[in-house]
Specification:
The complex is a heterotetramer, with two copies of chain A (207 residues) and two copies of chain B (332 residues).
Chain A: E1 4-5, H1 6-34, H2 39-54, H3 62-76, H4 81-94, E2 100-101, H5 103-121, H6 131-144, H7 149-166, H8 190-206
Antiparallel strand pairs in A: 1-2
Helix pairs in contact in A: 1-2, 1-3, 1-8, 2-3, 3-4, 4-5, 5-6, 5-7, 6-7, 6-8, 7-8
Chain B: H1 11-22, E1 26-29, E2 34-37, E3 47-54, E4 71-77, H2 83-93, E5 99-104, H3 107-122, E6 127-132, H4 152-165, H5 170-182, E7 184-190, E8 210-213, E9 224-227, H6 231-245, E10 253-260, H7 266-282, E11 286-293, E12 303-311, H8 313-320, E13 323-324, E14 329-330
Parallel strand pairs in B: 3-4, 3-5, 5-6, 10-11
Antiparallel strand pairs in B: 1-2, 2-4, 7-8, 7-12, 8-9, 10-12, 13-14
Helix pairs in contact in B: 2-3, 4-5, 6-7
Classes of the chains: A mainly alpha (207), B alpha/beta (332).
Bound molecules: adenosine-5'-diphosphate (2 copies) and magnesium ion (4 copies).
């Protein structure tokens, strides 16, 4: 795939929705350890609504699809992850003009998504949040972008997965897990884990 | 998991249907999932709304009514509501004098209310927000998302509601709400974890002889575990933790709430209240008003929270003002 | 066992100390272990008292106050009070117009109140007794100690209290109490057993997927076990059981209580109430008033009880009359 | 022992109090199965109060001692067992005139105790109550009374124990256990069990 178009965006979201559904219990269990046991339920509710919202939705390019995804997540998920993922998808979508984009352009859009997350949540890398998977993912994407969509997305997915895994060592400083102080160490962050799922879904879509 | 439910995903919607059937004074908008006074909006009166994840009943829906909230916005269980709901409630209670949002300090609540406030501003509605962060169990707010909003929410809703009833401006209603929050401290102890309908099992494992000290109201584990202790010692931990963070002096007056987290019998709450009253008397603090019961719960968690508000004449006057809601009622 | 207590044998005494601290409107006699309105006795007014084992709070102590009880007599946990206590309460509320005892139909309660009534008669105080036996789960009263007194006790205390407030005679107050009992039926379902402080472990073992149908409020097992069911089916079992024993026809009016047994969140009670309201609407019964919450509990038991009172104009008028107690309050 | 006097009465009550204390948990467990898990606690509270009440209490004969016991049980126990045992001891005490009595007289007094229980509680033999231990005990006492106190009391204790054991087969028709219907079968009645303890204490005292 050389261009990321509306169909690719739909395929990505469908793959992400399937991954979230399949891993919903796991995400909720992770959230149970250091949060309030709802992350999988939240995202699954959101992506189920997204799937319904995209059904029959007319879009002239990937941007419109992803803005719709973001808006739907914001109005269906709630909690911390709803506004964060919702704003991220809206920012990605807004950055994608035209019927299709190449790897560097999608990389820049994903970076806009990260910026939206950081602006809203004020989390820095190392705070044990979504940022700890998303930030290395966009870094890896940029480095690999010259190799095209498949290579960039694979690199990003691997980086997101590594980043998510590494959150286990961290002490949370943002979100609900932060209340645990040092007791949050040893548990992988649910939000970083769902971010890795979303990047893995993208890699599977554009491969 | 054993609960009186039909399906985990229908819990909030079906409970709202029950609220609608039980309280004809409230208008339940099942589509937007909000609870509104059926006589709202009031022209010229500030609209007061609050909301947050469900599972803390009677908070917030049980505090909708004269002298307290104009609307409540319940999210899914332990999940903050979404901006659309909050916006719908904001519009439903706007009588032209602006709307005050009472928001508990959790990342999700803060973000979703913030987004709704921006959307409301786009619609020309002035929104003031009061952030409640009274849980002194969260110590170093630079390393955390900050203190959580817990029991003081009940005090803020009551007192800001009374001032709104008197016709005060949105800025003044918000200001008194912030003043109540600033003057309040809370501390909670759990004996058991709660079980959310979606998770189907307790949020944390607590051995038969341990308690979770400084627990949150969403099943968030506390800051530490200790061995089970007599009620008297638990009351002392709570009182001392609060007074350390929000000092009070001899002669100060207080409004106090000994709150059950959902699975704790009233009998035990009264035992705790007896100890709290004795401890505050020792500190020279006069308890002018008190609540003992379930006001802000955590589903079926066996546990208690203590909230102490250092009160002055104005706060006491507003506390005593009439209130007519399913969860709190006096003076009318 | 995890509870906010100090020692099992001190639970009732210490909880009463907490009640005393929390409610200056009530006079708590710690020696006789009774809770009395601080303004009692009222010359010329019938004195209304009730009592029974502790562990059912807010019943009965939470219903002492204007328009309801003049005194409550709490026994040890799940143990009826002794005649001395009952006699002390009887004397404390006698204003010359006689005293009415509201007694739940349990062997121990009946015997102890009976003995106290005889002692009071020796002291020249006329005592009328109202026996509450509304629990339709107990079927064949020839083979049992008869139907148990449960949720209808709240209705009897409220309505008899209102009539006593109007200056009615002891005979009339007792008569309306009996009429309320006769017109009421209750049915309870437990999800878990409760743990008494003294026993230290649950009163019965209930597998993770079973419920106790027709359970008593003292941890007495019910008449049968069934598989866990959706809330809707449990509500139907309760409604059908009550209507089978106390039939109602289309056009009848009802006062309804969906009551939590102590460990069940309000969220679930509202889900149940929604189903109960729909079922009664299907039967053509109009719900004129309702309570949804914890009114007569069984310590920490997760469970619910439903009480339906077939009401007429007089009972509705007396229900609506002002009441000012810690557990029930309106109209003043 | 040929005469049952005030000291014997005190000794009986002390032995009964000790037996109740030692078996309190067992009685409560029995009550847990078919009642409300308080019978041991109730009786232990009552006999503890009885012990305190008799300390320094002046009595001119066994009758006064046992009336005091009954009155104390009534005002300290509550529940069903408080009035029943309290009335029984009061009736026994009232039937014992003078400084000491022989076996037939004590047997008649114990029968008065049974009458008090039956009058108050309206239970018949076979209803799975205290009566099912007390009734065979007084029957056995009468049969053996000619042999003196020790023989009568031993016979009564054995009969009470057998009666208590046999309650396991019965379906309760009185008291809290009656609510269980057929489900009460298979469990020994707590009240009958405590009655057996009380008769065993008497046998140990007069032997
Ligand atoms: N300020 C923040 N910035 C970025 N991510 C955050 C922030 N706060 C929380 N998160 C992420 O949100 C996840 C939790 O999401 P979720 O459970 O759906 O919401 P909630 O915490 O409101 O229950 C956390 O695991 C974390 O990765
Ligand atoms: N009507 C009755 N007559 C005789 N004994 C009874 C009667 N009702 C109950 N009992 C006895 O009382 C015992 C229970 O006593 P206890 O547990 O102390 O009181 P409660 O049932 O009030 O909790 C039962 O095991 C039974 O033997
Ligand atoms: Mg969460
Ligand atoms: Mg949440
Ligand atoms: Mg009992
Ligand atoms: Mg018992």
């Amino acid at each position: 795939m050389s261009q990321f178009d509306a169909d690719a965006a739909r395929a990505w979201v469908a793959a992400a929705a399937a991954a979230v559904k399949e891993n919903a219990d796991h995400l909720t269990q992770l959230d149970s350890a250091i949060g309030d046991a709802d992350h999988g339920v939240n995202l699954n509710r959101g992506f189920t609504a997204v799937t319904a919202a995209l059904d029959g939705f007319e879009a002239d390019g990937p941007g419109a699809v992803l803005v719709k995804v973001g808006t739907t997540l914001i109005s269906k998920v709630g909690g911390a992850s709803g506004p964060l993922y919702g704003s991220a998808f809206r920012a990605i979508g807004k950055a994608l003009a035209g019927p299709g984009v190449d790897a560097p352009t999608l990389g820049a859009a994903l970076r806009d998504g990260l910026a939206a997350i950081r602006k809203l949540g004020a989390a820095a890398p190392g705070d044990k949040t979504i940022v700890d998977a998303w930030d290395p993912a966009v870094e890896a994407w940029d480095t690999a972008a010259a190799g095209g969509l498949a290579a960039a997305a694979e690199a990003a997915a691997e980086a997101a997965e590594a980043g998510a895994k590494a959150t286990a060592e961290l002490q949370a400083r943002k979100g609900r897990a932060s209340y645990l102080g040092a007791r949050s160490v040893g548990h992988q962050d649910p939000g970083a884990t769902s971010t890795a799922l979303i990047f893995r879904a993208l890699a599977a879509t554009v491969s | 998991m054993k609960k009186f439910i039909n399906a985990p995903e229908d819990v909030v919607r079906e409970a709202l249907a029950g609220v609608a059937a039980a309280h004809p004074d409230l208008r339940v908008d099942l589509e937007n999932q909000i609870i509104v006074r059926s006589d709202a909006p009031f022209s010229g009166k500030v609209g007061l709304i609050s909301g947050g994840g469900s599972g803390h009943e009677p908070l917030h829906g049980g505090f909708v009514g004269r002298g307290m909230l104009d609307a409540a916005v319940p999210g899914e269980v332990f999940t903050s509501p979404v901006p659309d709901q909050i916006l719908a409630a904001t519009k439903a209670v706007d009588g032209g004098a602006g709307v005050v949002h009472i928001v508990k300090n959790y990342t999700g609540d803060v973000m979703n209310f913030q987004m709704a406030a921006e959307l409301a501003a786009d619609d020309g509605i002035t929104v003031e927000s009061v952030l409640v962060d009274d849980d002194v169990a969260v110590e170093d707010s630079t390393w955390t998302a900050g203190r959580r909003g817990t029991g003081a929410t009940v005090f803020v809703e009551k007192i800001a509601g009374a001032l709104a009833d008197e016709g005060a401006s949105a800025a003044d209603v918000a200001a008194v709400g912030r003043r109540v929050n600033e003057a309040s401290g809370s501390f909670a102890v759990a004996l058991t974890a709660c079980t959310t309908p979606a998770a189907g099992k307790p949020g944390f494992d607590l051995p038969e002889d341990e308690i979770e000290v400084g627990v949150g109201i969403h099943g968030e584990p506390g800051r530490r575990r200790e061995k089970l202790k007599p009620a008297k010692e638990i009351a002392a931990i709570a009182v001392e933790s609060i007074l350390a963070a929000k000092p009070m002096a001899g002669g100060d007056r207080a409004i106090v709430m000994v709150n059950g987290l959902g699975g704790t019998p009233l009998l035990e709450l009264y035992i705790l209240y007896g100890h709290v009253a004795a401890l505050l008397a020792d500190a020279g603090v006069e308890i002018v008003h008190k609540l003992v019961g379930n006001y802000i719960t955590s589903l079926d968690m066996a546990g208690m929270s203590l909230t102490i508000l250092k009160a002055d004449d104005e706060l006491i006057r507003l506390w005593e003002a009439p209130v007519v809601t399913p969860g709190l009622r006096w003076g009318a």
